[in-house]
Structure formats: C-alpha cells, structure tokens
Specification:
single chain, about 80 residues, mainly beta, four-stranded antiparallel beta sheet, about 55% strand, rod-shaped
Length: about 80
Amino acid sequence: MVEGSFFHLGERDTPDRPTRDRSLDTASVRLMRDPARAKIDAELEVIGQRGHVSASVASNASRQHVRAQVSEAAGP
C-alpha cells in the first residue's frame, strides 16, 4: 500500500499579530506491506519540508530558506 500527503503553511503578519511569515511545504510518502502469513511486514516513511521564514518578527527581517527531511523504517 502507498500513501502520500501534502501540506502548505502560509503565514502573514496582521496589524495586531506579527509573525515570522512562514511559507512551508511538507510532503510525505509512506510504503507499507500488509501483514501476511510467512511474509515480513514492513513500513517505510519519508517526509520532506522546504520553504522560507523570516529571521525574526521584525517587518524588515531577512528571509531564510529552510529544508528538513526525516525517514523512518519499521519491521521485525
């Protein structure tokens, strides 16, 4: 079985709430083998995130590119 997902976080300042103006995209893929007699069941998931954030909540803060990833495998 294969599962996939995508999530976008878009953040902007408002007059009463300064933010770090994050714009992040996160995608994941998960591969699974269903349990069956005399077969090894296993799972693999990979998640990646990229985008940009402001260095601080100041309106003139510089923009920073960010990237992260994680992977996980499970089985017997």
